[in-house]
Structure prediction request, 302 residues.
Amino acid sequence: MLPNITGSAGEVLIVMDTTRWKEKPGLLLKEMLEQEFPALPQPEPLFDIINIAPGAFDEIFKRHRSIIIVDIGSENTIPEIRYHENIWSKPQLVIRIMAANSESLVNLLTTSEEQILLNLQSYDRKRLINIFKSSIDPGITSIVNKFHINLAIPRGYRTDVNTDEFAMFSIESPGTSQSVFIYRSPFTGDDDLSSERIINRRNEMLKKYTRGSQIGSYIITSPAFPPVIYDLKKNGKQIVEIRGWWELNRGFMGGPFLSHTIVDGKHNQTVTVDAYVYNPQDKKRNLMRHMEAIVYSTELIE
Prediction:
């Protein structure tokens, strides 16, 4: 019976002595965690960080959602990183980094940066996916399933478009908009997973199904920011991830988007799940993390 986690979304608590925090090991950790979140119009860090000394690590701090504990001592003859779940609260990730001295710590951090970031980001995403799965709208799920996928879209989203090839769901608040698109095409070959074809298809579908406030306006992929392409694998399936900016043709709206495209061999089609954020007056990172969770929850119905 563990208590719920504390701390803000995207926040990491680092337990590390003050001296090393101000020297190279701490600077390296800070640089690693505060690098820019990808493809946002205004720079925001991957994580917000809090540093405390080991002596201040009391019961209150032990409930934090994501904790990095840096343990330096001569007994740590082999540098090592251990990952633990749900030690003092739930759902919690605790990363324990052990090294004999500062030099060994720096080498360990340098070689393990990708692994540390992957674990922090995927665990944050896992938390949100589990929350969203516990609050799925059955009506939206029935629409999603006709594309032969499962998707964790939580309650609160409305259905804006529902056709055999394209669906759109959105949630609005004053000054903020978040939307999810699902669209599919017959699979014709491996070229369907080229970034050029995916972006061209995206522009084609959004021109056909989205509308701005002015006559003839619709969403396009912004040419102001070259999209960033990632090749991923999930459950043995190849996924093409694209992060970029969207904008409104004949309009003044825009923001970041993320899409996953996957081949559904059973139904001879490619399926794309695409999500964007509009929040011109404020930060966008945490909203994009919500959209990431939805997109990353995509699973083919085998």
